[in-house]
Design a protein that fits this description.
The protein is mainly alpha-helical. Helices cover about 85% and strands about 0% of the residues.
Length: about 80
């Protein structure tokens, strides 16, 4: 329960940070590489949490390896 609460707070803070960056970029009229990089990293962290949660053991079992292999194959073709 504590981990989910902590991750929820982290994701909310991340959302506020990304919104502030988007507003700053909108006012400046340009998008910097740091903004794009930050969005990609934030998206990767969110997807990682949504896929696996906090269960590290699930990543190591057979189903977790199959999910990771399929994910890698899909991302390669994209």
């Amino acid at each position: 329960m504590k981990v989910r609460l902590g991750m929820s707070v982290f994701l909310a803070a991340l959302l506020v940070l990304l919104a502030a960056m988007a507003i700053k970029d909108y006012k400046n009229g340009t998008i910097g590489t740091s903004s794009v990089t930050s969005v990609v990293i934030a998206l990767a962290v969110c997807l990682q949490f949504l896929t696996w949660g906090t269960d590290r053991k699930a990543q190591q079992d057979e189903m977790g390896k199959i999910i990771a292999a399929k994910s890698a194959k899909i991302s390669y073709h994209i």
